[in-house]
Amino acid sequence: MRLYLVALLISTAHALPDGAPTSACNTLKPVHEGALPQANLAPYSVFVKQQGDVVQVTIGSNLGVPFQGFMVQGRTPEGRVIGSFQLPGGSQAHTIDCKGAGDTATHNSPEKKDLVNLIWVPPTGYQGSVVFASTILQSFETFWVGLESDVVEVRRRSVRQDSFYSNCGVTKYCYGAPIDCVDAQNCKVAVAVTSVGEAFDFELRANGNPAWVGVGLSDDARMGDDSVVECVKDKTTGKVEAFLSWTTINPYGAPRLEKPQEGIRLLNASVDEDVLYCKVRRDTVTNIKGTVFDLRANSFHVLVAAGAELKDNSVGFHDLSYLASPDPQVLSPNSQSLFVNRPDISTTTTPAYFEPPAARPAAAEFDAFYEGCAVTKMCFGAPEDCVRTRACRAAVAVTVAGDRYDFEMKATANAAWVGVGLSDDAKMGDDSVIECVKTDRGVRSYMSLTGIKPYRAVRLQNPQLGIELLNSSVIDDTIYCKVRRSPVTLVGGTTYDLTNNKYHVLVAAGDSATPNSVGFHNVQLPSKEKLFLSDTAEVAAPSKLLVHLHGAFMLAAWIGTASVGILLARYYRQTWVGTTMMGKDLWFAWHRFFMVLTWLFTIAAFVIIFVELRKWSEENNPHAILGTVTTILCFFQPIGAYFRPHPGTSKRSIFNWAHWLAGNAAHIIAIVTLFFAVRLTKAELPEEVDYILVAYVVVSVVAHLLLSILYGISEKSGDSRVSSFPMKDLGGSGRNSVYNDRNMDARFSTARKFILGVYIVIILVLVIGLILITVFTPAKDLFR
Fold first, then answer.
1. Same domain for 747 and 645
2. Angle of the 689-716 helix axis to the 562-571 helix axis, nearest 10
3. Quick one: 314 and 408 in the same domain?
4. Coiled-coil annotation: which residues (predicted)?
5. Do both 634 and 695 map to the same domain?
6. What is the number of structural domains in the chain?
7. Strands 584-585 and 45-51
8. 89 — pLDDT class (breaks 50, 70, 90)
9. What is the DSSP string of 339-395?
10. What whole-number distance in Å separates Cα of residue 239 and Cα of residue 475?
């Protein structure tokens, strides 16, 4: 009753053809102009049924009345929205995020529905009562708000011993040999099929050191004229590949198709001791040998097999295991309907009320690694916030079940290794690390301890003590592993108690490794806070404000203010003649202003980065050394300028050379340093920044060239020099050309002013663009 009264509050939601908006999260009430919720008894119900650790939620009508829209949530007795819905591909529903990820389900389209089956997953660690509150719409004008299910008593959710069989019969179809092995979780060969959008994922596994494992789809439960997905282990390399084949009887065979990988894609594969595993995505509809296999519209007998022999372009006999399902199967979980004696509803007078649904954006590519993140497992990756977008370059997922701590790690971009560290301070040093390394014999896992001086990750004397490699693969440019770690380990004299202690989680990956150690990390990120590894909440990265400020200040200094200040001093001493600012020639006043800004920006940036790092940079990159040299040169420039000798004195030439050399050296080294910054792990800058820096160099060279040409023409014509600081004056007093004519500008002053104006505009645009990219890192998507 409480939920029903809450649902009557005013909401700002609007009717949508493809589901309820998040503005209806609190009230569950649609705002349909002129329509109010029905007060009479609803012809619909929300039925619930516990299935292991999850709850099946079914929305429908015992009277056979179809409906067009709905919105449903799992709530505690206090009204708090909890849990999440799991929806297989092809479902009539999708999830939205109200209080948490996927905690609310709603309809996909206004098509009439008899019933909708959903799977609801409780949050980890929750135990208590749950009621499912919903709104069900028969039409635009007719809807019921606040319909509640019976109360469900939720147990603390556990994790099955073998994740391969997890949710079999709930969110995926499973079959294996021998008979009834799926329930016992001891199959010799098995397949698990999950509907994913417009495709189906086939997970295959076989024991007994097989050379191949396969699943066939048949019309008659007998081998022959069947479509087969097979995973084959290469005898020489051990690499697993997937193929489509077609079975024959006379003679026996399973020859591969002419294009054996058309319509399928290998997602994951591993060989772990005597177990062969693979995961293959297959198109929903394929045309094979003139026969159309529609996995969503048709049912098939499922044949599973594995063998130890291989032939040329074919698998051998299934001598390890074989079994065919006695009845044709639909390749998605068959949830038994909770509604009985439903009348024929072939006709209805229910009015349509929705406009045709707008085209929905294509779903992001499915990646099983991220399934369950922030729901059943803790996930963290680099770059920042990549778990949400499912686009991590390096990531770790931790699943806790009792005293088992399973670490899944993956890295892309042809990484040679990926690792996860547990730290007390979010910085590398004295940290316990699990590393998975690509070797000639596959992926191997080790325990190591990090050090700083020098940088290293030293493997323990017994590097497998306390860990067990459960699964691993290298597919395309991605390395993956799953490692189980003991809850209590002694590493480097420190006890790591994963159950009772919190740790910063550090994830890293690199493209180089030796037989005894991993190389430097190209990707690295620590968690902001210490965490219990059993905590499935979203993991945040530490603030990068100081890193961003450092980059922004250096860009403003050396691309911006220094560039303009140097240009003014070299080419504009005979421009704006007679115009002063605070008693100084205009060119000098502006030159001093820009160079003082350069000094302030540089010193501030130098201090900021040391406050952030609190140490010398550990990256194998000359950026830190070059930046320090630039800062030192910059620091002494204004001091030297303050004590400069007067024009005409004997030591003026020494100052001219020193000031010119130090200033130009600092500027050139600073620009080179910025190029090296693009390669820094912490910067996370896209490589396209190189092109912007190159554009800056080109613009600067062109500006200097044009101004030098104007100077040369002016000098040749006998006019006063454009510059009072040309190279041949460095050894003199600097007076011979400065004072030729103090009453008028040198020739081409208008052209020089125009070039300066264009140059400043271009530099301003480049600086703003570079600072925005730096501040909003990682910014790779800006260039895609």
1. yes
2. 10
3. no
4. none
5. yes
6. 4
7. unpaired
8. low
9. --SPPP-S---PPP-PPPPPPPPPPPPP-GGGTTBTTTBEEEEESTTHHHHT--SEE
10. 9
CATH number at residue 194: 2.60.40.1210
* pTM (predicted TM-score): 0.44
- Tokens 């996860």 belong to residue: 420
Residues 6+ apart with CB under 8 A from 237: none
Residues 558 and 449 in one domain: no
Q: How far apart are CA 457 and CA 234, in angstroms?
A: 33
Which structural domain, as residue segments, surrounds residue 39? 2-154
pLDDT in tens, 636-679: 888 877 777 777 677 777 777 788 788 889 899 989 988 888 77
Using DSSP's 3-state secondary structure scheme, residue 685 falls into coil
pLDDT tens per residue across span 371-406: 888 888 899 998 888 998 888 999 999 998 878 899
What is the crossing angle of helices 562-571 and 652-677, to 10°?
A: 150
Count the Cβ atoms, other than its own, within 10 Å of residue 221: 16
Q: How many CB atoms lie within 10 A of CB 240?
A: 22
Instruction: Check residue 661 and report its DSSP letter.
Output: H
d(CA 407, CA 414): 20
CA angle in degrees (0–180, nearest 5) for 119-122-128 = 125
How high is the mean pLDDT of the chain? 81
Question: Final residue of a domain: which of 291, 324, 357?
Answer: 324
Q: Indicate whether 168 belongs to any domain.
A: yes
Distance CA 534, CA 543 (A): 24
Q: Are residues 39 and 137 in the same domain?
A: yes
